[in-house]
Amino acid sequence: MWQIAIVLIIYLPLVILTGHYLYRVTLHQKTWLDPILDKVDAVIYKLCGIKQVDMNGKEYVLSLILSNAIMVFIGYFLLRIQSFLFLNPNNISNMEATLSFNTIISFITNTNLQHYSGESGLSYLSQMLVIIFMMFTSAATGYAACMAFCRRLVAKTDTIGNFFIDFVRVITRILMPISIVVAIILVSQGTPQTLSANKTVQTIEGKLQDIALGPVASLESIKHIGTNGGGFNGANSTTPFENPTVLSNIVEMLSMMLLPGACVVAFSLMIAYRKKKTIFGKQGLAIFAAMSILFLLGLVTVYIAEKAGNPIISELGITQELGSMEGKEMRFGVVQSALFTTVTTAFTTGSVNNMHDTLTPLGGLVPLFNMMLNVVFGGKGVGLMNMMMYVLLTIFIACLMIGRSPQFLGKKIEEKEMKLIALCILIHPAIILLFSALAVVTPTGIAGITNPGAHGLSQVLYEFASASANNGSGFEGLADNSTFWNVTTGLAMFFGRYLTIIIQLAIASLLAKKFWHSDSIGTLKTDNTTFTFLLVAIVLMIGALTFLPALALGPITEHLQLYS
Amino acid sequence: MRKLFMNLKQAILITITMFILCGLIYPFAVTALAQGLLHHQANGSLLEINGKAVGSELIGQSFSAPSYFWGRVSAIHYNVYTEDDTVPDKNGQLNYSGVTSGTFNYAPSNPELKKRIEADIKKFLLANPTVKRQDIPADLMTASGSGLDPHISVKAANIQVKRIALASGLSEEEIEKIIEENTEKRTLGIFGENKVNVLMANLTIMKKMDNRQE
Fold this sequence. Notes:
The structure holds two protein chains of two kinds. Chain A has helices spanning 2-26, 34-48, 57-80, 97-108, 118-121, 124-154, 163-189, 216-225, 246-272, 282-308, 311-315, 333-346, 361-373, 382-402, 415-441, 443-446, 454-468, 483-512, 529-562, and strands at residues 199-202, 208-211, 407-408, 411-412. Chain A is an all-alpha fold. In chain A, strands 1-2 form a two-stranded antiparallel sheet. By secondary structure, chain B is mostly helical. Chain B is built from eight helices and six strands; from the N terminus they run H-H-E-E-E-H-H-E-H-H-H-E-E-H. Chain B has a three-stranded antiparallel beta sheet with strand order 4-6-5. The radius of gyration of chain B is 24 Å and the shape is elongated. The chains are: A mainly alpha, B mainly alpha. Chains A and B meet through helix 1, helix 2, helix 3, helix 6 and helix 7 of A and helix 1, strand 2, strand 3, helix 3 and helix 4 of B.
């Protein structure tokens, strides 16, 4: 389909350009915004007492966790007292305790799973001071972690980079400027940006209609730029105000694809520039290609499944030329919806422009599987780190098969690293499957399921996959605002985020401290096509081994039932 | 220990600084820019008749009169209600409990989906006796994701022409012309779908009916 191909073609130059910019920001090289932003940063450093000293791996992680913890306390407190504060023109009441817990964890971990509905759950002040604030800081945290990780892979020391400085630079030089531009583009398409209250109008049939307004555009842009995904309104980017036109749809998709892809480009440059200048380093290209293959496989599957429509609707005798339209918007149709669904789960954003619960079984399997793999580009920064775990694993397995000692970028991969890598790769499926098992054996868990049969299990799996992958989209039918669901998904998001980041940075620290060995003829090449396919195969194999039984009971069973 | 204390102090200060920069300065700046540059869009693209807002270009509305186009199925009834809906009915149920968005979230295999669509088809065929079942496009019988979808497919508009002409007193040609005028083509001829904005088309119908009565 042309409209998909064109979007992807526009994406390529954009991502390479942004990757170069990101590279320069990461390594503190000159950029054209420096004259202004150097001053802004200097003021911030001074206000906060930040000194330009390098941190070692442990200090870096500690600073990351400390600052996140403080943000959690402030945010939680605000949600609990929002009704007493200003900028609450629609008279929203305070948020309940377990729901506030879930919401705060959800936004600080860049997940944005929403068990509340924006129109009735948050005041404008909370949308700004809690949600928009955390969208910036959680994205910046993830990216800072990724910077630290990449630096340690190419450096020969563990004492390098400062968390607070990385954190500030990501916000002022990357997230904030792009967000302002995207916000204005979205307003031009029709996204509201106002602080006045919701509007009640009289329709031409003499009835009343409430129209929900608010500072939507300023949230909408960072929601996608920071791969956050939490909507201003309950129905997220399906609502006409969050995503008014096809053009806004494309801008939102490109926004969420931009930085995760750019991370890979920047990483490739960090490796390649050790030798010579290039547009896109070979090692990064091999990883980017592997991610792209997985992405396209998913995209084609969703598209075919949705275009085929729902056989039950066909049985009713009406015409389904447009494909499966339940839960989709007319202005997007099946094509733009299929693309958005794949992008939002591959790039771990979690915003939706159609309701994933209503996707055909195979169409719903793809977003679910994308989140289970959690390496198809992935959210800002952490996606690349997850993929690097698989890269190291692939090197290890391949070297075992051909009898060589595993080595990546001149560093030997040994027992200690491999243990941590294995642990890191296993945490994610463990969280998803164990919590899902818990949900289906407890009455309070089962109470949330709203669709009968195999699809009910898919709802549970999807919720925990989304929580653990820090994605945030949902099979929204799930009645998830209960103590059980608020607490379990809160824990899943928390462990999925921080355990993984801590282990990954520990691995990077271990590698950074090692001696550097130059490549020999015996070293496995990790920057060619063979390696790309090997990587794809390992990712798919591990994904299938862990998740196939659960998928067979959920979406695959539903598919067979629909077509029987 | 001193290092930890330093870190904690920096963490607290950076949180407060970003709290103000990202949570206040940024949204206020975007609001000022948007209100200054794009006033109409920034306030919800409202449509006005004689100075009174009747809806938004971008948000769908539910219509029940036979002389108007009907939109897609909405789980939230497009947030359209009457005064009676805001007080509890005899079962103590509120028919309208405040502005929201969303859909039924019926899985494709859910029997409720089949039941709902079948009931809607019957209702539609009853109101449009000249239409054959196999000519109804699925977008008209399925629920949109937001419950606020302002559009229907061109085909979904065309099959309503006879009913609207009969009820409104306008000719079928006039209605067809209204469809044509309110059809939004694929962006750049490639992106999205061809579609008709229901509220905009109905406003045109209302104006034409008013002119006729005068």
